[in-house]
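## tool: complex_structure
## caller: assistant
## args:
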Amino acid sequence: MSEIQLKDNADQTILDVPAIKIQTDHHGAPHGYKRWLFSTNHKDIGTLYLWFSLTMFFIGGAMAMVIRAELFQPGLQLIEPNFFNQMTTSHGLIMVFGAVMPAFVGLANWMLPLMIGAPDMALPRMNNWSFWILPFAFSLLLLSLFTEGGGPNFGWTFYPPLSTQFSPDSTAMFVFSIHLMGISSIMGAINVIVTILNMRAPGMTLMKMPMFVWTWLITAFLLIAVMPVLAGAVTMILTDKYFGTSFFDAAGGGDPVLFQHIFWFFGHPEVYIMILPSFGIISAIVPAFARKQLFGYHSMVYATVSIAILSFTVWAHHMFTVGLPLAAELFFMYCTMLISVPTGVKIFNWIATLWRGSITFEVPMLFSLAFIVLFTIGGFSGLMLAITPADFQYHDTYFVVAHFHYVLVTGAVFSIMAAAYYWLPKWTGYMFNESLGKWHFWCSLISVNILFFPMHFLGLAGMPRRIPDYALQFADINKIVSIGGFLFGLSQIIFVAVVIMAVRGGKKAPSKPWEGAEGLEWTVPSPAPYHTFDTPPEVK
Amino acid sequence: MTTPKMKKQLRLLIFSVVGMFGFGFALVPLYDVFCDITGLNGKDYSRSTTVPVSSVDESRTVKVEFVTYLNKQLPWSFKPEIRSVVLHPGERYQVSFVAMNQSDQDTFGRAVPSISPGYGAQYLVKTECFCFQEQMLTANEEAMMPLIFYIDPNIPSDISTLTLAYTLFKNEPTEVAMR
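## result:
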């Protein structure tokens, strides 16, 4: 076996690290609030993004707890239906734009320059700006909940006429907060592209870049392509509601179905924006703990590119029931099924990487393995939803809710957790508490399945999504789901404890705390000094 | 730190962002053109025509159903004279819709048609329709609104039923007065 490995290693990127250079903090971090407010340092901004994302994860999570508490038993117990709708809407918006996306941008900020051997991001001041817009965007969104008439209550997809004729007065606040989030993501994406294209260390060709860098490069292009379309969609909602235009109003010659086309033209690439960086993370962690080179690096890159391209040809699978012509339903059905091919390539490659590896089960690896299994379950339910005639049955039921939570929670969120555990020693300089991390993993794994798996059955039995009350036959399963929800919510407190403990101290982490880890980021000391790679490393 | 190459990339990227923002809006007319060419979304593109009626196809019949909806803001009642009719393709038929203004004010309405199945929309040919113009009803006035149409004999054989739905929307009086 060792022979095979040696042979494998022959064509692997070999990093030339002439006896770890001591990179001094020739001017260290400034002190006080100014360090954070005016920061142009990629590590500080990455940290800000990650803390922001964690905060939003808990705010969005609290809203999910409200939703599950109301659904604990049939009938209306705790909240008004209108408030329930505000909770589902805000939960979705906050988790998508506030938790998952900023977490990925934070990871990109921290890790991209370290992975490609750059001293910082290419456009550090814009980097500062793109982060500091976010607190304003989300304050605006959260404040709208306290206005008269309440916050957004039309679902995160804001279909008109719900979001135009029947929406609360605070809709303008919702629109502007989406504009700000969009500007922030676009600036982040521009920064990532320019950094990756210009600041790689000498010798690091595109096909030698780590998978996380590749997936982020492609994600950034997706962001550039679709976030402006979302901005256009919310602008049209704004003018339809407040300025008398009729983009989506049939009375004025518009068409509400047109909105769904525009929204999902953004919305479907958006789901790949939320999963491609995960693929990069898993492609970094699995080889590290299987102590083998990633299987099929090239096919991994091509699969990522094909997923990104195909993501523009499948949007109408979200709208099979609006009355599309047969030809369109077939086209979008086949294109959607086609996406499972490159995705399958990725899953295959990870499993092939694990095959005959010397696997150890540290916390990042546990989360990654759970990701592979559970994301695949989410992928399969997606395939079921892709079948047009079946979708007529599943559309807008809890089956859909189960599907996208499997890909977003046990997919995107689990990969972010894995990434946090994997790079935490590099960020803080201390090893985290391994046994507490394992507690976090097992509690999350068990509770997340109690939470989301029974939702499949609810959906197949016909329970619609986005309802505050339900028919009695759904009572038992909803109770189980709610208990799973509360347990999952509580489990995440362990994560906060692990992170805070690792920030405060613990066992000193070496520059490469994981035996099998590969990449430039492990050549700098832990914690990574304030300035790294002032002189670029040589990559052969 | 910013090299000319990076500036060029930046310009390109910002240009693409602006371009994609514009593309979002361009989808609006593109969508209409696409639907017009393909006739896919059940929008009714027939206009008042003088095309001679081709021969009546006695060998088959098509059922035409009439459905009416009222937009909440319009204080009218609106119903077809009959719910459905069975016709031979090519046969000309007149049906009336009864509308009544139930408020004490003169109001303007406009009917927006939709035909399903969508791909059958182009075969329902209207020669005269109240939906071609705005309608005005004075306070408590009742009116019969005529529609004359025929089914194009080229209609595919798998279509045995066409549903013609009208939604009456309120029109702003100022808008009509200006015309």
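## assistant note: Chain B has two helices and nine strands. The first strand of chain B starts at residue 62 and ends at 70. Handing back to user.
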